[in-house]
Amino acid sequence: METWLRANTRFILDPVVGAFARIGVSPNALTILGCLLNVVAGILIGLGQVVWGGLVMTLIAMPLDALDGALARVTHQQSKFGAFFDSTLDRVAEAALLVGLAALFMQRGDSVSALVSFVALVGSFMVSYTRARAEGLGLECKVGLFSRMGRFALLAIGLLLNQPSITVWLLAILSSATAIQRMVHVYRIA
Hints:
single chain, 84% helix
């Protein structure tokens, strides 16, 4: 999904990356800005502004996140630290959004959905961790029903449609299933 999306949005992203490169924006600056905007989106969601949080995430933070790696490649600033930094702040961004949802549910008195938000957070982190750990062992692990791009797409749709409860339930189920799918995959190839 991620590869297809990147390939089919290059005509939009490439000119923006070129503009950032010309004015001297660093890839790490985009990474930080994207993360901070996702934190803002999480705060908006927690304050009950679900659609506004979804708009900030979808229209500003997600596109910035898609640009940092491309900017690093174009400006020849790719580094192991940059890849590590990007992945780390991606987890912070995802946590901010899901904690924002949990806060929203707690304010509404919906403790079950608040708990499911944390299940979604753990499932999401496990999807990333299972891949990172497998790759740390020298094993390929890009399999899975629900990668990061899928999680962000579901979040975007769910927030923009103002359906936070359905969204966290789907995130919890699909991310947990993907983590299990990756564990089974590594078991088979190890």
